[in-house]
Amino acid sequence: MVLASLLAAGAPLDEVTRNLETLGVPFQLTVKPAEINGIGALKVSVSYPREHAHRTFADIRALVQDANLPARAAARSIEAFRRLAVAEGVVHSLPPDEVTFHEVGAVDSIVDVAGSCVALELLGADTVSCGPLPMGTGVMRTSHGQLPVPGPATLEILKGSRVHFTEEPHETTTPTGAALMHAFTDGRFTDAPPPMVLGSIGYGAGTSRLRDAPNLLRAIVGELEGSHGDMELLEANVDDAPGEILGSVLERLLGDGVLDAWLEPITMKKGRGAYKVCALVRAVDRERLARLLMRESGTLGVRHHAAGRTVAERRWAEVSLPYGTCRVKIGSLDGEDFAIAPEYEDASGLAEKTGLPLPRVYEDARAAFNRFS
């Protein structure tokens, strides 16, 4: 239903399929129109040769890593299956890498999860908002026998997230769906989507007929008003690392995908001087970069919390000076330029080459841009 809703909202089926073919598993996607309660939707099914082998999380992770998927789509796919493995491991008392998937280890679930992540990427979605997931009631049949609804793995995946319990006598949120939406939103489910300019809308159709609601999943694609969400602020207090190590930490973070990184001097208990290492990252990169921060700095823990930001429009230009060229970054609001910043590496190189003071090169670069803008 997730994949169907994203395809209905405009994700190109041919490109999704081409990406999925790099997984190296045989499958065929079938997309058909459907009508649920008078609403036009898409119904997606996956066919594949019958398998007898079950896959572990380690198997699926290797499958995704070896495929040629967009980086963020691959990361989200692995995160969804990781959450599934952790949840199943808790339920069955196994380490995550040793969990053997049954229903979700089949090709159709791998295609569903990876395809949904690829479709989201092809739609250009930087942030995802989702309401609390609905929890049905009753009993369902699985490879482990009959289990209560909501399933134990579903509840484990959604620990710490807001959910909505209903009297619907069906499994309205599966473990795979819960893990996928958790990977999209980091488990932050909200009652209302953020303000946006509406773009496209798509409906994915389910198979069961529900008693109290249409069995549809709706995807709304829009442009957020001004703010760019999906950001996290990482923070770690470090009091036992020399300055050169902290400098190296910043260089590694800045070279590995953070949006910004900096040090703040702080005073810890017993008057010890220390530094707080801070990094602004995309939410999808949080765990990877938090682990990098721990490995590089030696800190035993990293705090993180959501961080919104409002950004100006930016563009680059290159200006010609009597002694070389220099790039400048221009910031604008409502079509009006208000900030002109010479690129440090270019300006410092020209200063070293000519012997001019760096502030003079900055001044010349700004003046040259203003003359020809």
Give your account of this protein's structure.
With about 375 residues, the protein is of the alpha+beta class. Helix content is about 35%, strand content about 30%. Helix 4 packs across helix 7 (about 175-185) and helix 8 (about 245-255) runs antiparallel to helix 9. The longest helix is centred in the N-terminal third of the chain and has 22 residues, at about 70-90. The chain is globular. It starts with a helix and ends with a helix. The model has no long low-confidence stretch (mean pLDDT about 90).
Task: Write a compact overview of the structure shown.
This protein folds into three domains: 2-224, no CATH class; 231-306, Alpha-Beta Plaits (2-Layer Sandwich); 313-372, Roll (Ubiquitin-like (UB roll)), CATH 3.10.20.
Number of helices: 11
Strand order in the sheet with the most strands = 12-13-11-14
Please provide the ordered H/E string of secondary-structure elements: HHEEEHHEHEEEHEHEEEHEEHEEEEHH
User: Average pLDDT across residues?
Assistant: 88
Classify the beta-strand content into a percent band. Answer: 25-35%
Low-confidence stretches: none
Task: Count the domains.
Answer: 3
Largest sheet: 4 strands, antiparallel
Spatial gap, N to C terminus: 50 Å
The 3D shape can be described as globular
Radius of gyration: 25 Å
Give the number of DSSP strands: 17
Percent range of helical residues: 25-40%
Structural class: alpha+beta
